[in-house]
């Protein structure tokens, strides 16, 4: 009887040992599978890792951050110019004791309303041209220049820094800055006339307090834009403020990637002695036969 009990105890102890060994082996297999899964997972998305790495590097780049800021701001600016230019179309008005539909606002019978709507469209087009030149100017400033807090920001110091740029790149900056200056005043004048005409039409079709609220809101939004434009363009020749970045950032130095040495600048001026740059009037007269050179302007 004792022998049988000893045999049963040995069998049960062996079963326990075997089960423990199996469980330990199973845990090892699971941990190995987990490590293998993590390894395969990290190796199966090399493209995603590269993309994330590029995005992180771009976020550190000053030019990339500035250009993304311009894109986001431009979307909001498009909404503002639509509401602020097309006043007769989007401001609530009264038609036969009811609120006018957009079609009723557009297709007015009286001549003065039709003229005013035409001014609305002209103002919108002038601002679209302004935004086009504004973005082109901003892109040139971001690409060729940079914000250097250790350099002086006065007109003469920035003019000296611009000498590090090739002649053509410097000309492009000055050219778009001059275009922006002219279009800024054209758009301002168009906005003032448009606002006066629209006020007469809207007042003659006054609905309720909502008419006044929407009208004033749209006009104030556009007035703020005009104020920003005038503050940017009313500067000295070599003072370039950003039209989109916060706190009116001033570009006061040349991007290191766009610099050329004095020797290269001298060689460029010798090779292209037919290109005359007048710094006061920002004009370029081209009499060269090099078509490729002309296209690059």
Care to describe what's here?
The protein is mostly helical. It has 2 domains: 1-33; 86-261, no CATH class. Helix content is 71%, strand content 6%. It is built from 11 helices and 8 strands. The chain has helices at 2-43, 46-60, 62-85, 87-90, 102-106, 111-144, 155-162, 167-204, 209-233, 262-271, 291-295; strands at residues 94-95, 98-99, 145-146, 240-241, 250-251, 253-254, 276-278, 283-285. The strands form 4 sheets. The chain has a two-stranded antiparallel ribbon with strand order 1-2. Strands 3-6 form a two-stranded antiparallel ribbon. A two-stranded antiparallel ribbon has the order 4-5. Helix 3 (62-85) crosses helix 9 (209-233), helix 6 packs antiparallel against helix 8 and helix 8 runs antiparallel to helix 9. The termini are far apart. The relative contact order is 0.11. Mean pLDDT is 76; it is low at 2-9, 34-42 and 269-297.
Radius of gyration: 34 Å
Proportion of beta-strand residues? 5-15%
Largest sheet: 2 strands, antiparallel
Order of helices and strands: HHHHEEHHEHHHEEEHEEH
Q: What is the count of distinct domains?
A: 2
Strands side by side in the biggest sheet: 1-2
Q: Estimate the helix proportion, in percent.
A: over 70%
- Taking the alpha carbons of the first and last residues, their distance comes to 109 Å
Q: How many strand elements?
A: 8
Low-confidence stretches: 2-9, 34-42, 269-297
- Quick check: average pLDDT? 76
Number of helices, where a helix is a run of at least 4 consecutive DSSP H or I residues: 11
Structural class: mainly alpha
Q: What's the shape?
A: elongated
């Amino acid at each position: 009887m004792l022998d049988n009990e000893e045999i049963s105890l040995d069998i049960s102890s062996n079963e326990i040992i075997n089960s423990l060994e199996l469980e330990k082996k199973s845990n090892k297999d699971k941990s190995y599978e987990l490590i293998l899964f993590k390894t395969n997972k990290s190796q199966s998305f090399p493209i995603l890792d590269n993309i994330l790495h590029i995005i992180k590097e771009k976020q550190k780049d000053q030019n990339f951050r500035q250009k993304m800021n311009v894109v986001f701001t431009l979307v909001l600016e498009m909404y503002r110019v639509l509401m602020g230019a097309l006043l007769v179309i989007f401001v609530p008005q009264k038609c036969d004791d009811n609120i006018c539909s957009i079609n009723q606002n557009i297709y007015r019978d009286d001549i003065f309303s039709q003229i005013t709507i035409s001014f609305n469209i002209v103002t919108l087009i002038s601002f679209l041209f302004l935004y086009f030149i504004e973005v082109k100017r901003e892109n040139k400033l971001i690409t060729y220049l940079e914000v250097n807090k250790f350099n002086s920001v006065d007109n003469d110091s920035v003019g000296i820094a611009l000498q590090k740029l090739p002649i053509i790149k410097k000309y492009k900056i000055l050219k778009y800055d001059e275009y922006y200056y002219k279009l800024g005043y054209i758009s301002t004048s168009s906005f003032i006339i448009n606002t006066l005409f629209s006020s007469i039409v809207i007042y003659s079709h006054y609905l309720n307090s909502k008419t006044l609220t929407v009208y004033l809101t749209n006009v104030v939004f556009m007035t703020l834009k005009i104020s920003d434009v005038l503050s940017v363009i009313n500067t000295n020749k070599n003072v370039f403020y950003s039209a989109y970045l916060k706190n009116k950032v001033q570009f006061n130095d040349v991007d290191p990637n766009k610099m050329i040495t004095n020797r290269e600048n001298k060689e460029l001026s010798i090779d292209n002695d037919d290109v005359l740059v007048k710094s006061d009037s920002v004009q370029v007269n081209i009499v060269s036969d090099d078509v490729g050179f002309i296209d690059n302007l």
